[in-house]
Amino acid sequence: MAWGELFGLLAMLAALFGMSAVLTRRAGLNSAAAPLAALALTELVLLAAGLLGVLRPAGLALAALGLLGGVAEAVLAKKKGEPCPLAAALANPAAKLFWAVAVALAVGLFVLRPEFLNFDEYSFWGTAAKLTCETGALYTVCETGLPWQMTELAALPLASFFFQMFGPFAPWRAIFAADLLMLAAVAAAAGCAKKARLACPLFLAGLAVPTLVTVAGHTALLNTAWLEFLGDLPAGMLFGGAVAFWLAAKDEGTAARWLTLPVLLLAANVKSNTFVLGLAAAGLVALDAVLFAPAETRGAKRFAARLGFGAACLAAPAAQYLLWNNYIAGLVRRNAAAGGMGDTASASLPAVVVNGLKLLLGLPAESYFEARSDLFWQYGSAMTDAFFHRNVSVFGTGAAVVALTLAVFLAAVLLAPDKGARLRAALFAVGSSVCFAGYWLMLWLSYAFLLKDSTPESLASYPRYFASFYTGWLLLALAVLGVSCAAAKRPVFGRAAALAAGAVFAAALALGTEPQFTLLGVSGGEYASVRREVAVAKAAKETIQPGQKVFLIRQGDEGFSWFLFNQQLCPALVYGAGGATYGEPVLVEGMAYGAPYTAEKFAALLEKEQVDVLLVSGVDDIFEASYASLFADGLAAAKEGPTLYEQGEAGWTPAVSLAGEVTG
């Protein structure tokens, strides 16, 4: 085992603990919320450093500051006879649970060593993280081998970069980084209740949320909620976690409150189509800050300051998003000027929103949108039907998840100790419900006007898109419940409510899932096929010379394998058809991923792309019947296993056999 990977990650985890200790002592922050603040500040610094081209030095500086800062705080506190800040960083029971689970998760993932399994982990998320780690630069400026610009937001690749500072890139460390963001959000929510009898069951409930919302009843398929490197669930959990952070920090002083801004920036910087969740979190925080002031900020003279804080909460994520879009637009223009691919969007997001609302209100819209108006209403009907009839979670349909969330809010309202607290809990319930309506509308517009691979009958990725909101909404409800439980007039009722929440979520996890197909019991066998392909790709990379262009042939591929190989080989891999079954037109006719080329046209394609090496990973009868004449050995070597071919006088000639990588 590569023990250096684990020790390198634990060193960065120790640096994060040092940062949390500093924030707890210097900003007076709730220790359960400190890890989320530390992660948010880290991401903000790394983003700025990446844009300035000094990403790796910034990462090393953060590691040093975290490790030395924690030690320095401990030394200073000892000299002054003050309590140890390292112990203070564990004061809240939720903080203890966070750090214990974080270490256990690191060790568990190191032993399991999960690989990326999802298409999007290879087409963007994992590849962006790998490029950033290996080059020490933002993935946006790296050579990717793709015919388009990588434009997705940067929080997850940068979080992965932080935990991969020491040692080579490893997918399991990227997965750990995404998990830690969600775990920090859970800690902030549970930390709203500072007593162990409240915080512990709420932490358990929050920990179960990602799995519960992504499993639709018992299933024999692997649930990857805690085993994936995708933006959907972290974006949702950070939506709820950002508001929970505010609830945990609101009464801890001015410095702690202002740390909400970087957390909101983090929540808004995970994924483009979940940016609205960051804005929703900012809006809820702003409303609460203005309408329900902390004790030391009440009074007419302080009202303007509260308004300013609320405006800053809304402005910060919006400004970050606009700056990133301007940065990407500059890269796209530069890429287009250099002969690459520029902007290919069929409609801009503002145009979609404006014209979609016009259709909703029965007003005339632009011709493109009028032409799709029937489709717009079909999607609306399909989404409504799916909300009430399509299972998306252990709890059942989307309607069931909403009912559960509102029930948690209702419990928070009933437990609140006075009228003001009840109004505050109700504000979060009503405000977040309005946010849900807005998110629903955004997805409706996206399905009708932006998403190309969906139909009203299929609603592509429907559970995944809504899981982002459902996870965050449930976590937010648990945080509000935690506040009410802690302040309940009769503590026994608060303890009972927290215990009930933990019991319900734990029971749902136990009864509604198959533990062996979750993080609790998954085995390495789940990754066997992917590991074989990764081994072939890595072996090919060791053989291929710098500057050589490689063309992948893997019959039966629907794009997944091409992106997997590209993650290891980019930018050497030629795009070609981006993963397909190549063959004579008559042999691949009707195939969804067929690439029809006669032998002459296939040879011309390879010549046009200036291919130096053919990586033949998998052939079939179609490929043999179509192109065997182009190969000096008639594909004999390729039929034995993956093979690298180079151009020779008699055609493509076997150069290196990679068959041993498949058999181990």
TrEMBL record:
The keyword Membrane applies. Coiled coil: none annotated. It comes from the Bacteria. Keywords: Membrane, Transmembrane, Transmembrane helix. The chain crosses the membrane at residues 6-24, 36-54, 60-77, 89-112, 170-190, 202-223, 229-248, 276-295, 307-324, 392-416, 423-445, 465-485, 492-511. This is Uncharacterized protein. It comes from Candidatus Allofournierella pullicola.
